[in-house]
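User:
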Amino acid sequence: MIILLDLNFTLVSNSHEKLKPFARQIENETYCFDLLSRIKHATVILITARPAMHSTATLKSIKAKTGWKPDAAYFNEWFFSPPACKKKILETYIFPKFGANPDTYVAIESNPSTRAMYEKLGIVALTRDTVLETFRPKD
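Assistant: Predicted structure:
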């Protein structure tokens, strides 16, 4: 199983806090350790609508604050809406590299429109809360 992990409002615990410049927001982000404890042994692809220009700072922040890094990470190169961006990432990068079988993937996604896009492709899409309530952490 490969987890398609959303960033804002899923991995980022304090997405509701908006700071400027955006680099300051990244510096102040906190991450959901409870979620990471449940997925850390799986293959995890971070897939986000955050603009690609913030990829390096975001990934450094995640690693520095959690000690964890995703197996792969894809950011928004096109400034598309979250569902359109993530569909383009799937088609352009993830399916060619990891395969197009929807049963291979589970998405953990905050955006209802993006969850609907995943489900239309046959990919199970869960919210962070569903994962936290349903799955126990592995040691």
